[in-house]
Amino acid sequence: MEQYKEEFIQFMVESKVLKFGDFTLKSGRKSPFFMNAGAYVTGSQLSRLGQYYARAIHAHYGEDFDVLFGPAYKGIPLSVATVIAFSQLYGKDIKYCSNRKEAKDHGDAGILLGSPIKDGDRVVIIEDVTTSGKSIEETFPIIKAQGNVEIKGLIVSLNRMERGKGNKSALEEIKDLYGFEANAIVSMADVVEYLYNRECQGQVVIDDTIKGAIDAYYQQYGVH
């Protein structure tokens, strides 16, 4: 596993973004792990987060794109932090763009903030995590309405590796439905491989009990 992925897994645990225990998800599923990207709140956390996203985007999509689109609301700080990091790490200026939940009719009018998207632009979409693909349903038509735009792909921080609406993962379903790549900084398989019986901040966060619960969860909800 690449070093930046190992560092990112540690970073998620240290930031209390990725937790293990007993959680009820919005979908109603009982899960032994929970991710809350809203727990990244400090300047140093957002700076590091942007760097991990930038590395993953560079690994999957190179520098061959123009705009990083972060759907409102969580995607707004993600896109801003990541274009800053991309400039610092790779010396390439990528524009950021986000949507407004409500179109603005004065001043900087319209549904978009940041850089407008125009014909010929190549776009990467950035999100925290995708469970059902619902946000892409809303985001895809907004981007496509801006002109002859190529969507290069989607990047999320964690691939939960569970079934979406059918028998495929949410990221696989996005690829099938919309025709663009969907990738993550790390997958839950990476997380389990790295953290199982390993101390992180002085404690083992995935011991035999948690590992058993995760295995059972994927027996029920995983992609088979």
Provide a quick synopsis of the model.
By secondary structure, the chain is α/β, with parallel strands linked by helices. 40% of the residues lie in helices and 25% in strands.
Q: Over all CA atoms, what is the radius of gyration? A: 18 Å
Structural class: alpha/beta
Helix count from the secondary structure assignment: 7
For the termini, the CA-CA separation is: 23 Å
What does this structure look like?
The longest helix has 19 residues, at 43-61. The protein is built from seven helices and ten strands. The model has no long low-confidence stretch (mean pLDDT 92). The relative contact order is 0.15. A hairpin with a 5-residue loop joins strand 1 and strand 2 (30-35). Helix content is 40%, strand content 25%. It is α/β, with parallel strands linked by helices and 224 residues long. Helix 1 packs across helix 6 and helix 2 crosses helix 3 (75-90).
What is the topological layout?
Elements: H1 3-14, E1 18-24, E2 30-35, H2 43-61, E3 67-69, H3 75-90, E4 95-104, E5 110-114, E6 122-126, H4 134-144, E7 150-159, H5 170-178, E8 181-187, H6 188-195, E9 199-200, E10 203-204, H7 208-221
Parallel strand pairs: 3-4, 3-6, 6-7, 7-8
Antiparallel strand pairs: 1-2, 4-5, 9-10
Helix pairs in contact: 1-6, 2-3
